[in-house]
């Protein structure tokens, strides 16, 4: 495994974002918008007098952690799509680049996205809603690690489906992770699911994270 080839591929994707305002906007606009909308929902629930203990933690904390999973998955899947759109896959794999090096580069890219977007979301949540997710303490580290690895697995699964079915399946790069959202119990406890789905949810690693957060 060559560090030089990994860094070269990583640099190639970094230049895409450096030279494209639209790509940067896509990374930061939607998380900020989600945070604003869910923040207003929590304020509304408090104003109408609904007794929901820890509403801010329920929604804003869950939203921030969900975005970790989403960005980790996108770091794999969208990076692959970038190569498809540029007709660059054949060039990549005609080079000495191995599949392992490609995966390491895209996983590193996903970690950079998670770090950048997660940091901004934590800052916005603290500034606008006085919510500090770091109050979870050291338990936040295994939470994030679990979600990143889960995102990688979903990203590799998404990439394999796109490779099999071609560009007609590219919408899965954004939609695949949402298939797991209902059984990941992001915004509600597992107990609200039907018994059959509860059994499935306990087999999904992210569900344990969101349950532990609550």
Write up what this structure looks like:
There is one protein chain. Helix content is 75%, strand content 0%. The chain has ten helices and no strands. The chain has one domain (3-170). The chain is globular, with a radius of gyration of 18 Å. Helix 1 crosses helix 5 and helix 6 (140-165) packs antiparallel against helix 10 (205-213). It has helices spanning 3-18, 21-47, 55-85, 89-94, 99-129, 140-165, 172-175, 181-184, 195-201, 205-213. By secondary structure, it is mainly alpha-helical.
Task: Briefly say what this structure is.
With 214 residues, the chain is an all-alpha fold.
Give the structural class.
Answer: mainly alpha
Largest sheet composition = none
Number of helices: 10
Distance between the termini: 41 Å
Low-confidence stretches: none
Number of domains: 1
Principal-axis shape equals globular
- Percentage of residues in helical conformation: over 70%
What fraction of the residues are assigned to beta strands by DSSP?
under 5%
Q: How many beta-strand elements?
A: 0
SSE pattern: HHHHHHHHHH
Let me know the average pLDDT: 85
Structural Rg: 18 Å
């Amino acid at each position: 495994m060559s560090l030089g080839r990994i860094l070269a591929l990583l640099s190639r994707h970094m230049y895409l974002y450096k030279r494209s305002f639209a790509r940067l906007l896509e990374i930061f606009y939607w998380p900020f918008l989600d945070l604003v909308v869910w923040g207003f929902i929590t304020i509304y629930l408090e104003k109408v007098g609904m007794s929901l203990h820890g509403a801010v933690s329920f929604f804003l904390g869950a939203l921030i952690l969900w975005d970790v999973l989403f960005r980790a998955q996108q770091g794999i899947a969208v990076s692959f799509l970038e190569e498809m759109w540029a007709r660059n896959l054949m060039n990549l794999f005609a080079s000495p680049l191995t599949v392992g090096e490609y995966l390491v580069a895209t996983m590193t890219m996903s970690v950079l996205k998670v770090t950048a977007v997660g940091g901004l979301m934590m800052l916005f949540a603290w500034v606008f809603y006085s919510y500090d997710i770091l109050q979870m303490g050291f338990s936040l580290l295994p939470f994030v690690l679990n979600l990143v690895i889960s995102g990688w697995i979903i990203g590799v699964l998404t990439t394999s489906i796109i490779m099999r079915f071609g560009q007609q399946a590219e919408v899965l790069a954004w939609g695949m992770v949402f298939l797991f959202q209902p059984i990941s119990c992001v915004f509600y406890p597992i107990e609200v699911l039907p018994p059959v789905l509860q059994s499935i949810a306990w087999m999904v690693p992210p569900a344990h994270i969101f349950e532990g957060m609550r």
